[in-house]
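User: My advisor, Dr. K., asked me to get a structural model of this assembly before our group meeting. I'm new to this, so sorry if the format is off. These are the inputs:
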Amino acid sequence: DEAKIYYIRGIAVLQQCLSAKLQVIPPNDDNPDGVFVNIDRGLIIYICFLRGITDEKIEKLARSVLQAKLSENYESGGKLQNILQINGDVLIIPQATLGGKLKGKSMQYHTNLSKTEGLDVYNKFIDICKKLIQENKANSVVQNGTYGNRQVLNIQTNGPFTHFIHV
Amino acid sequence: DEAKIYYIRGIAVLQQCLSAKLQVIPPNDDNPDGVFVNIDRGLIIYICFLRGITDEKIEKLARSVLQAKLSENYESGGKLQNILQINGDVLIIPQATLGGKLKGKSMQYHTNLSKTEGLDVYNKFIDICKKLIQENKANSVVQNGTYGNRQVLNIQTNGPFTHFIHV
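Assistant: The format is fine. Below is the predicted structure of the whole assembly, which you can bring to the meeting.
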């Protein structure tokens, strides 16, 4: 048995995809279908930060997510490598719902950041991811969802290989 | 701050979808494209069980997942109800990777069930979900992935509203 005291401040759910398409601007007069971003093969990062998150933990989560060896390198027989090594794309999706805790039949979000703080931390996380990808000279496209919006999303995957990471 | 001792035995990641399509038989001579199941609007349940899981916890997780009020009832202005109340479909996807714990840059799965035990518990979970849906006279289609297979999957969602539940 593994007993630990947790103070979870940041949560990421990771899925592998062949492609994904995310709405970043909802339908409006100029764009009746909304505006979408696309990624090709790569990593979808659903992300949520909780009260008490620190800059150190934001950085740690970004490093963990991008350095975790969870992507098959098809050119080397399916060996697991991190998303930087396979030059995979990255789609970051804000998902405050991951901070929910079930009480009875309802979800409570008491430890979630306020919207203002949440947006600030979300932007920091994206910036760190972009910096790490640049530092590693990886040829990865980074796209991200619009904080606070409904995340209208299509995914194609040949195995989501879903992982849960927290800091 | 919230301090707890966790003994996590079962994990579910929940996502809302408009539709989803999952491969249940890989391509073979008779079915060159493989065989797929589909659901319409409903709930995707990624599920993983760990060593020490009990029948009580399997049942508790099934009830939690199906009774959690996470689905918008469009007919009542978006009020959140559970999947049974909106007669939404259910897609259960085995996802042993959710049991992973990151050590350095690699995932370890030391607390995962063996494949034989995992299949047994997975089948129990599906049976309980079907039983609960029948008891509630919900008009929900239940589909599920093939344990141990690669989960080739397409999802369309107008907001995954991702939640993490454990027992």
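One thing worth pointing out at the meeting: The CA atoms of residues 1 and 7 of chain A lie 19 Å apart.

User: Perfect, thanks a lot.
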